[in-house]
Amino acid sequence: MIRAVLFDAGATLVRPDPPVEAVYAREFAADGARFSEEDLMRALARAWQEVHGAAVPNRYGGVSGEAQYWKDFLGRVRSFLDGGALSHAAFSRLAEHFRSPGAWAIYDDVVSTLEELSRRKLKLAIVSNWDSYLPKLLAALDLDRFFPVVAVSSIEEVGKPDPEIFRRTCERLGVPPSESLHVGDSVTEDYEAARAAGLSALLLDRGDRHPHVAERIRSLGELPERLA
Length: 228
Known about the structure:
Layout: E1 4-7, E2 14-16, H1 20-30, H2 37-52, H3 62-82, H4 88-98, E3 104-106, H5 110-119, E4 123-128, H6 134-140, E5 149-152, H7 153-156, H8 163-173, E6 180-184, H9 187-196, E7 200-204, E8 216-217, H10 223-227
């Protein structure tokens, strides 16, 4: 029997609005870079692959190292675009933007689903690879009321797919992994990682990109019925 449900955050509960690519394009252009949309997508993919290519336990550099982590990442993107350097002003604008609650939107299927699961007395938590701003963002969006436990990779200094972050979360909820379900949008970091840690898992596949995964849902609105 499932007694606890754990959720990923980004692309599961919340999304950047406008999209990350649009914000980056605006700020890099204002910083003097000249590029096409295809250039930006390639630069982002290459930078992300380099930064996350190796399995690292502390995804965002820890609380004390977050600023440097993001400077390194954004500096790589700018360099891959045109060989230029990211200015301090552009970095500050980007940091301020993504630390604003107004830059994030809650998916339409989130609140009603969380309310129904709470009504059923299921214990809820978040397990997310994010920097230390996430708890403040959840509070600003009034989502923190649903989650007595929020495990963030930067704060925990361990992140998905390491099973440790799932085990810590279950322990704090007081529910064993065998009675817990994790829901997220990543095949590797959510679906497979949770199963490896001893939890049940559902892949949230909003874009219908992973039809080969049997245990998947297209909307969080399907979750209450799957748990019935």
